[in-house]
Amino acid sequence: MCLLMVFTIMQTSAYAAMSDTISVSFTIDPINEINIAGTSLTLRVSSAVAGSQPTQVSQSTTYSISTNCVANTKKLTAAINSAMPSGLTLSINVTAPSGATSTGTTTVTSVAVNVVTGIDAVAQSDLAVTFYLNATAAAGVVSAASKTLTLTLVDA
Q: For the domain 30-155, what is the CATH code?
């Protein structure tokens, strides 16, 4: 009798389990991030070959990009905060992330110009950015100055 009662109690406990459900909602917001390594660089023209314009100088850094955009819907533009002094030209060459296209070495002015087009959803780091400074002899001696260059990830 005691054994039968224990079996009956165990059998009743097996059916006492409970469960419940919950609805989990989710969303993913647009993500559009770009970061240039470092905060500054210096380009100094200091030589020329006799009979030629001053020698172009360059310096490189890297950038990282993350975007979850639809295919070919983003591009990178570059602009500086004000015009370069007469006789000086600032150019930039931005390596494109996977699936996108670089415009190659491009002169940068105060008007935004495309430097990478056809950007798809991507997360990539350590992509090269090279800055070039060209001067003509007519530029003369230019005291130290700076420009703020902005790379912007925008809709294509």
A: 2.60.40
- The model's pLDDT over 90-102, given as tens digits with 9 standing for 90+, comes to 999 999 999 999 9
Question: Mapping DSSP to helix (H, G, I), strand (E, B) and coil, where does residue 10 land?
Answer: helix
pTM, entire model: 0.84
Tell me the domain boundaries of the chain: 30-155
Do residues 142 and 109 touch, judged by C-beta distance below 8 A?
no
44, 108 Cβ separation under 8 angstroms: no
What are the Cα distances from residue 17, in Å, to 5, 7, 9?
20, 17, 14
